[in-house]
Each structure stands twice: as C-alpha cells, then as structure tokens.
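Now for today's protein.

===
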Amino acid sequence: MRDWSEDEIRATVEDYFAMLASEMRGEDYNKSDHRSALMDKLSGRSKGAVELKHQNISAVLHEEGLRFVMGYKPRGNYQKVLRDHVLKYVHDHGLDLRQMPDKEDVFSWTILSDTEAIKRVDKSAILYHGTGVPKQVLPFFGIDDANPPKSLRVLHQDKELSLRVSVDPFQRVRIFWPKALSEDIARAFPVETATLKTGEEQGRGAIIMLFRKLTDSLFEVEFYGAGVMIEQPVPDEYVVQVEGKPVRVEYLRRMRSAINRQKAIEIHGTTCAVCGFDFEKTYGDLGRGFIEVHHLKPLGESDEEAEVNPATDLIPLCANCHRMIHRGKGDVLSPDKLRDIVRDTSSSVTH
C-alpha cells in the first residue's frame, strides 16, 4: 500500500479535471481511455486504485460544495496532499465549479447516473430518520407521486430493509427508514452527527448516503464521509463507552467495505481461522452466517484508502480471537502467532 507520490497525484488531478472540463462543455469522453492513458504515467497503479483516486477527488470537490465528475461518486479517506493539489488546481485555473447541473442537483440530492444517486444527510434525516424526495428525484426510485408505493426495498450491509413511503399534507413525498439505520450513521460519524443535531439544518455533505439501483424495485444504500478519516488501532466492533459523568467522546474510524467482507466470507467461510469456533454450531440459527473479518495488514499503516483482496488480505475470526490479536499495545499479532499461543496453552492445560 504505497502512498501516492506528488507527481502521481498531480497527473491524476490533471486527468480528472480534463474529464470534468469535457463534461461541463457537454462533450462526450471515454473514462476508460482516460484511465488507460493515465496509468501509463503512474508507477504500476491498478485500474481500481486509479478509479478510487478519482472518487477521492470527487469527495474533495463535493465537500467544498463544488461540481464533480458524474459517475465518480465521492469517496472520502483521502490524503491531505491530494486535497491540497485539487484546491490549488481549482484556484490556479480560476475554475467556477459552484453550480451543479440543474437536472442533476436538486436541493440535498444529486443524481449521478441512471443507477446512482446521493443524498447529503441533513438534520431531519438524523432526528426523524427520513428525508423528503423532490419531484425531480422521484423517477430515480420509480415513484409516482400521485400513487406512491407504501415502501421501498433497500439493502444495507447485506440486510434488507423496508423504507416507508408517505405523502405529507403538502403533497411532498418522504421516505423513512428504521431508527437502527440512523444509529448506524451516528456510530460511524459521531462528530458529524452531533453537529447536525445541534444546529446545522442543511447537510453540507459531511455524510453522504449513496443509493444504488440494483433492480427496478431493489436499491442498495451505503454511507460515506467526505472528509479525511484516520485509523484507530482497534477492531471494527470497538465502541467507546462512557459511564457516570457525561463526557463528550470523539473518535474517527476508517470505513470498511461490506462487499469485501461478504466476499471474504464466501471465500473463507464463517469458521474462525485461529481456533475453529463456529457460531452456528454453538448458537444455532442465531449464529448462522456470523463471523468477524480481520485485515491481515492494518489499514492504518497507510494515509489513504487501499485496495483489499478478500482472498489474501482478509480472514474470518471469532470475537475472542479478534480481540486477542488486537490486544497488544501498538502491535497486532499474526494469526499464526495467536494460533501457536492457543495450541501451546491448550497443551499445557491438557497435561
């Protein structure tokens, strides 16, 4: 996971703005051709890494309320030096990117393509677990405001949710999701959520909901932070606990990919790779399909997002082994080392 050099970043930023300029002029361009030409200038970067960097640039622009390349959805967790290069390019070239196309940007919504739309999370989304859907966005969800459906089917982290659809007294369509989904947002983005709750009415894009159309009647929703996030050397399931005296606790965490997690489970199964524990065998239906997934190389070792291969970079671990691997101060045990500890301890107890 090599950090990108200044020259690589500069070339990528220039390529991105070349695409954006074509888009703003209404000219057709081929992203694959751009990417191929750019990869020749980089130090062995993969197609996925280049696409991710373009998405990072979109996140920088989106965070500033500026227009970005449609189709490269904003992805946070970028290097600070990338942000500096992007904003310097905008300044040095005198670019006016303050307006998104009217047909694509509606209030806190942006239609990225026929299959993707983003919602910038605002105060009402946090407090009331729902959001209004402007008339211009209704076609994306296949909603007829004269005869709207009662609900929408949505996948989030491999679980299907039902979003309630209603029409308020002013004939505005609104969708509401389970409270648990808002709680997921709050856990992932505690600082941004607190800011929204205490006064910011209109979301500025610190938290983004990405809706992806899978079929005409099924959507997937993911959440992204538009800003830089830094890894804490703790496992995903860790949550700061506060007891007694009220204390404000702030922390930042690096978002994991639910798709990578699911793929890792498909490849490696749900049996702990260290001790062999199987949740289903112990807990029955309650434990079926449950396991934690561990990154063999901690993401915090790099200042940026990185490609993860579920086959070689991820392994399934039970909660106990996962915590033991992360228990050392500053050191993460290898699964082999923990496996030796488990074997040696078991042998000593047996004898």
Notes: The chain has a mean pLDDT of 78.
